């Protein structure tokens, strides 16, 4: 009987987590998307301001400006569960990677919004493009190192990956508007060729395996930092759909006299935005049993995770990350916020 009680406790905790997160997500949906409340129902400067900001964050998850983050998010936390083609992460580790990703995204988003009012625009806002280029370059490097080296014993898989990389090259050249930039176009070709050479076993990158890749794969602390970095890097080039509420919050944050209040409301907006992501992360963490059933596809998950980091990195460097929004216009509707 004692053993049964011990086994049932994690299930109760997960159910409580689902219930709490779903409740937090349902309240804004019922109040604003279905109910009678609108953006003018409360004043941002009044006691209802945090609730309005939180609700706007929750409901923005299904906007075409936020949905492009979801595949990157899922690839990141799923890839964190794979090491050398095998599932190694527990539910707790996978969900913690989700928390780290959302934390990085939220902190950078809040910092960018508040920088103009609190620190002066030069510190972050004026250098956002350069910071995006640096973060994008690091993401590209991370993506290359995530690609698993399979050796020369699998020529068919190498040929298939070469076809996929060719399609990725054409897609990124179009999305990033790189057709007229020969240097960046050549750099993209070199990066994707390096990905293929690494997968096919022709390039080992032993230096990075000793100093960078092994800690990421074996040290969960560093792995969490990677997840947080990916979320923060995405925030550097991400432009959320600026509705009436978020526009007002950003205006407050950029005004020196209201910067503290604006930053406070941005934190509530980010908290609301985090709720659906954490629900997705909790669902992925509970899908570990399913992932283990497809153990043989572990290398594919690693490849997809690496390629998605490269795609985001290239679009960050080219300043075209928002081009991903065009693929999610089906979710463009107004929730009253």
Automatic annotation (TrEMBL):
<feature type="transmembrane region" description="Helical">
    <location>
        <begin position="185"/>
        <end position="208"/>
    </location>
</feature>
<feature type="domain" description="Cytochrome C biogenesis protein transmembrane">
    <location>
        <begin position="190"/>
        <end position="318"/>
    </location>
</feature>
<dbReference type="InterPro" id="IPR051790">
    <property type="entry name" value="Cytochrome_c-biogenesis_DsbD"/>
</dbReference>
<feature type="transmembrane region" description="Helical">
    <location>
        <begin position="155"/>
        <end position="173"/>
    </location>
</feature>
<protein>
    <submittedName>
        <fullName>Cytochrome c biogenesis CcdA family protein</fullName>
    </submittedName>
</protein>
<feature type="transmembrane region" description="Helical">
    <location>
        <begin position="297"/>
        <end position="317"/>
    </location>
</feature>
<feature type="transmembrane region" description="Helical">
    <location>
        <begin position="20"/>
        <end position="39"/>
    </location>
</feature>
<keyword id="KW-0812">Transmembrane</keyword>
<feature type="transmembrane region" description="Helical">
    <location>
        <begin position="266"/>
        <end position="285"/>
    </location>
</feature>
<comment type="similarity">
    <text>Belongs to the DsbD family.</text>
</comment>
<feature type="transmembrane region" description="Helical">
    <location>
        <begin position="131"/>
        <end position="148"/>
    </location>
</feature>
<keyword id="KW-0472">Membrane</keyword>
<feature type="transmembrane region" description="Helical">
    <location>
        <begin position="98"/>
        <end position="125"/>
    </location>
</feature>
<keyword id="KW-1133">Transmembrane helix</keyword>
<feature type="transmembrane region" description="Helical">
    <location>
        <begin position="229"/>
        <end position="254"/>
    </location>
</feature>
<feature type="domain" description="Cytochrome C biogenesis protein transmembrane">
    <location>
        <begin position="53"/>
        <end position="135"/>
    </location>
</feature>
<dbReference type="InterPro" id="IPR003834">
    <property type="entry name" value="Cyt_c_assmbl_TM_dom"/>
</dbReference>
<feature type="transmembrane region" description="Helical">
    <location>
        <begin position="51"/>
        <end position="77"/>
    </location>
</feature>
<dbReference type="Pfam" id="PF02683">
    <property type="entry name" value="DsbD_TM"/>
</dbReference>
């Amino acid at each position: 009987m004692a053993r049964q009680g011990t086994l049932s406790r994690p299930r109760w905790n997960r159910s409580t987590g689902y219930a709490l997160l779903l409740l937090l997500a349902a309240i804004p949906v019922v109040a604003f998307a279905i109910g009678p409340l609108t953006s003018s129902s409360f004043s941002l400067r009044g006691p209802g301001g945090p609730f309005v900001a939180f609700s706007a964050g929750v409901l923005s998850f299904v906007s075409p400006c936020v949905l492009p983050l979801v595949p990157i998010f899922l690839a990141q936390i799923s890839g964190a569960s794979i090491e050398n083609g095998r599932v190694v992460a527990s539910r707790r580790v996978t969900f913690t990677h989700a928390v780290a990703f959302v934390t990085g995204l939220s902190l950078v988003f809040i910092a960018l919004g508040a920088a103009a009012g609190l620190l002066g625009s030069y510190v972050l806002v004026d250098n956002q493009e350069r910071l995006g280029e640096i973060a994008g370059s690091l993401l590209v490097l991370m993506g290359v190192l995530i690609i698993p080296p399979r050796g020369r014993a699998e020529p068919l898989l190498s040929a298939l990956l070469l076809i996929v990389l060719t399609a990725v090259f054409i897609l990124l050249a179009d999305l990033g508007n790189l057709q007229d930039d020969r240097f960046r176009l050549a750099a993209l070709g070199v990066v994707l060729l390096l990905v293929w050479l690494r997968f096919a076993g022709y390039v080992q990158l032993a230096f990075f395996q000793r100093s960078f890749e092994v800690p990421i794969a074996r040290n969960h602390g560093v792995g969490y930092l990677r997840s947080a970095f990916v979320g923060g890097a995405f925030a550097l080039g991400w432009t959320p759909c600026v509705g009436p509420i978020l526009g007002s919050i950003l205006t407050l944050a950029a005004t020196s006299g209201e910067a503290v209040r604006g930053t406070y409301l941005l934190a509530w907006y980010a908290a609301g935005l985090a709720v659906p992501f954490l629900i997705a992360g909790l669902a992925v963490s509970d899908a570990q049993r399913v992932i283990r059933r497809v153990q043989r596809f572990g290398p594919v998950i690693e490849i997809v995770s690496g390629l998605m980091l490269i795609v985001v990195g290239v679009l960050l460097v080219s300043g075209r990350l928002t081009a991903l929004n065009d693929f999610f216009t089906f979710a463009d509707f107004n929730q009253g916020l």
